[in-house]
Structures are given as C-alpha cells and as structure tokens.
Design goal:
The protein has 15 helices and 18 strands. By secondary structure, it is α+β, with helices and mostly antiparallel strands. Strands 1, 9, 10, 11, 12, 13, 14 and 15 form an 8-stranded mixed sheet that branches. A 4-stranded antiparallel sheet has the order 6-7-8-16. A 3-stranded mixed sheet has the order 2-4-3. The longest helix has about 35 residues, at about 185-220. The chain is globular. It starts with 14 loop residues before the first strand and ends with a strand.
Length: about 500
C-alpha cells in the first residue's frame, strides 16, 4: 500500500500497530490532506511539513550523513527516485532560483521521491523534495521552477519555525487558563479559537510564499505566469480524479487557500511584473529531462485500476467506493470524498496466535465499540462494529484472509451512517485474479513528437491508461479541449 499515513504516497504493505487509536487515524487522514504541499489536491501547492524548527541547516548540496528526519521522510515516500538526468535538471533549476532570492548564500539539497502522488515540500533545514508524480504533471521548466520557488520561499521566510512558535504559544495560553486559572471551559474555547488562528496563519503563509515565489521566478528569468499554469493543471487533475469535474476547496480549518484564490493571486503577481511572454519556459529541455520517468503507482505495491484497488503481493483487491478518491500510502490505503465528509482506511494488522477478530478491533481502536457482529465477508471470517463520536460515525471491520488480517474503516461526518456504503465496500474484498495481476504493468512517460495533422484525440489513443485517455493527455500536456497540436513539438504520453 502506498507517503506514510501522514504523506500521500507509495508503499509496500501496511501493518497497523496494535495501539493505533481512532484519534491517531483521524490525525493521519488530516495530515494526508494538510501537511503536503502539492499533495494531489487542487488547493495544495505548497506548505512545509511539520518538522521541529531545530532541524539542522544544510551546509552543502549533499550531506555526508543524512539526518533522521530526511531518512524517515524518504522511506515514507517509497524511497529516493533514481533518475540522474532528471535529478541534474532539477538541481540546475534550484541553483538558478536560489541565486535570485533574497538569501542567495543559502544552500539546498534536492531529493526526488519515488511517488506517484503530486507533491513537493521543504524542511526548515533547506532540504527540498519533489515527487515523480509532480515531475510528470509539469509541462515545462518554468512550471517546476514555480513549485520550487514557492518551497524555497517557505524556507527563506522561516515559515515552519513561525508556525511552531504560534502553536506553542496558543497551547501555553489555553493551558494556563485551564489549569492555573482553573477555568477549563475558557481554556477549551481559547484552544478552539487557536485552531482557526493557526489555519489562517498557515493560509497567509501560503499566499506569502506564492507572492515571493512568483517574484523569484521572474528574477531567475523564468516565465512568471508558470505558477498559475501549474496550479490550474493541479486543479484539473484533482477534479478528474474525484470524478466530479470540480476540484474540492478547503474548509475554514484548511491550511491552504482555495485554488481559485491562489490562481488569481499568482496571476496578479505575474501581471505586476509584465505581460505574458516574459521569461523562458524551456519546454523542450524539460520534456527531454523527464522522458522515460515512471508514471503512476508501482503495480507490485498496489495500484488502482479503473475503480478497483489491486495488490498482487498481498493477493487481495477491493472496489473503491463511489465518490471516493484513494491514495496508496506506505502504511495504509487512505480515501476521502471530494468534500471530505466521508473517509476510509484499509490496512493490514499484526495479530497474535489465537487472537480473535473482535479482540483485533478492540486492540487497534481505543474508543468504545458497539454492535459487534461476527460475519462471513466474501467467504472470509470477519467481525464488524460501530464507533460513534461527537462529529463522526465509524464503521469498522476486521477480516481474516488466509493468514493475514485486514482492517477496513469507513467514517462519515455528521448524522449520516456510512453503513450501506461500508457493507458494499467490505463485500468487494476478494483475491486478485490472474488476469488482474497480468494487467498490472508499470507505466512511464514517453515524449513523442507531433506529426503534421496529428491531433490530441489521435495521440491520446496511444495512452496506456484505464479511462479518460483524452482528458489525461490534455492535462498532462497543459492543453484545453479543442486545442491544436504544434507539428514538431514534444508531447507526453503514458505508455507501458
């Protein structure tokens, strides 16, 4: 299964810790949506993940001994992606951007991550991370430079440290009021208010990084309008993934501004610099650098084909519930609906000899369970239960398939009980067929040159994707419907 539960990326197979609680799981889902910069969400470019501000500074492009944060993070995202030509191109872009910043003396270490999720982020230490999923989406050098410029801005503006200080200050104030002044109710109210303050603060950081990033982009000689183009492509990708045609927008506690607001801001910032046509995009150079990189999930670690999740190493598959988009993370398959009111988790749990399935659920769920029921699910023994919180209703199942035990959880916010959708989902769990296993071939990006008379419709027929080949071709190449192709220009295809 594909980042850790707190990062949206690739994985081998998840095993849940016996002490995993409901709070921990909700936290993981929240981090999935909020901690990554581009994280496959239209509103996401780009926030530093939560790493302690005391993380050591980078003293050169390469380190002799990787720090623990770096090692753990790379492992969570499926490891480092080895592509020397691509790595060299990303490093050159970074160097050019840093020279154009207010802190040209600072140094950065860039790591490519072997993840299909569209993501980029920075550590306060100056380490930058870009997934191969993001590299595949960008259409030219200036778009990738826009992402990197935004991340560099987070580092130079010391956003992670500022956010940590505000969080600690808010916690301290609420604790003093609750404990020292013996006013728990007011303390809780202050803590609730501080959550909104932190969210607003984070959104302000994003907008500031957007503005500074566009300015750096232009100073480095790149097209300043590239930031808006990339955000638009990200929004289109999310809308296509959710199947709604509309990219989801964050609620009041989201750490990122809405996509429309962000695109408006970066476009306005670019226009203050000049009219479209300024700077370079270096499209041909960029496409040459990413030609042949892997695309999509590593099939052996689990992948979604059409609306079905397949994991040949585990020998299992299930249908993705209607309305959900899923991420195959290192520790679990995590899913959410577009508006975030329903979520799901699928993982494997370690069990002891003779441990009953009801004991499994109790051991991996700290809150109270009710309605425990022994069942047969798709021919396998299972126990289902429900847990009701203040804002969420959770449906849970522990299912034993051979010698493995899997946990499936679906949550719904508000008064809605997810039981009907939950039962259809768990009933879809089944062994992977031989035909399904054979269909899981690794995909890659191939750059082809458009011949005279070729259209997007014609080239999209060569795309090795499960559905919506034309839409995917258009998004990958930054094209709108009806747009013509330029003979002699390179375009990205997904091939096996």
């Amino acid at each position: 299964m594909q980042g850790s539960a707190s990062f949206a990326i690739r994985a081998r197979h998840p095993r849940a810790r016996a002490d995993r609680s409901r709070a921990g799981w909700v936290s993981a889902l929240a981090l999935l949506c909020l901690s990554a910069c581009a994280g496959d969400q239209a509103s996401a470019v780009l926030t530093p993940i939560a790493i302690p501000p005391e993380a050591p500074r980078v003293t050169g492009r390469e380190r002799s001994a990787p720090d623990a944060d770096h090692t753990q993070l790379v492992a969570s995202f499926g490891g480092e992606y080895r592509a020397p030509v691509t790595q060299r191109a990303v490093g050159e872009i970074t160097d050019r951007l840093v020279r154009a910043t207010e802190r040209p003396d600072e140094t950065y270490a860039v790591t490519l991550l072997d993840s299909a999720v569209i993501n980029a982020f920075a550590l306060p230490s100056g380490r930058l991370y870009v997934t191969r999923g993001l590299l595949a989406l960008a259409t030219d050098t200036s778009e990738l430079a826009a992402v990197l410029a935004h991340e560099i801005a987070h580092v130079t503006l010391r956003h992670a440290s500022a956010r940590s200080e505000l969080a600690l200050r808010s916690q301290l104030v609420s604790k003093v009021v609750a404990d020292v002044l013996n006013d728990p109710e007011t303390g809780a109210q202050i803590q609730s208010q501080s959550r909104f303050a932190l969210a607003r603060f984070s959104r302000d950081q994003e907008l500031e990084a957007d503005r500074i990033g566009v300015r750096t982009l232009a100073r480095a000689g790149y097209d300043p309008f590239a930031a808006g183009r990339f955000l638009t492509a990200l929004s289109r990708t999310t809308a296509m993934k959710t199947g709604t045609g509309v990219a989801g927008e964050p609620d009041m506690l989201a750490t990122h501004p809405g996509t429309a607001e962000r695109i408006t801001l970066v476009t306005r910032a670019a226009r203050l610099i000049g009219a479209p046509g300024l700077g370079v995009d270096e499209r041909a150079r960029y496409l040459a650098a990413i030609d042949g990189i892997a695309y999509g999930d590593n099939p052996t670690d689990g992948a979604v084909r059409a609306k079905r999740f397949l994991h040949p190493n585990l020998g299992i598959a299930f249908d993705v519930p209607d309305g959900f988009s899923v991420d195959n993370t290192r520790s679990a398959v995590l899913g959410t609906t577009n508006e975030g009111s329903r979520r799901l988790l699928f993982d494997q749990v370690d069990t002891t000899i003779g441990q009953g399935l009801d004991e499994v659920l109790k051991a991996t769920w700290n809150d109270g369970l009710e309605g425990s029921e022994n069942r047969i699910v798709a021919g396998n023994p299972a126990v289902t239960a429900v847990s009701r919180g203040k804002e969420w209703t959770f449906r849970l199942a522990a299912i034993r398939v051979g010698e493995r035990t899997f946990r499936m959880i679906m949550a719904a916010k508000g008064a809605t009980d997810p039981d009907p959708a939950f039962r259809r989902w768990i009933e879809s769990l089944a062994p992977v067929s031989a035909a399904e296993t054979q269909s899981l071939r690794p995909s890659r990006i191939q750059v082809v040159t458009a011949a005279p008379g070729e259209t997007a419709e014609v080239l999209s027929r060569r795309m090795a994707v499960q559905d919506r080949a034309l839409d995917r071709f258009l998004v990958l190449n930054g094209l709108e419907r009806g747009a013509g192709l330029r003979p002699g220009q390179g375009y990205k295809l997904v091939v096996e």
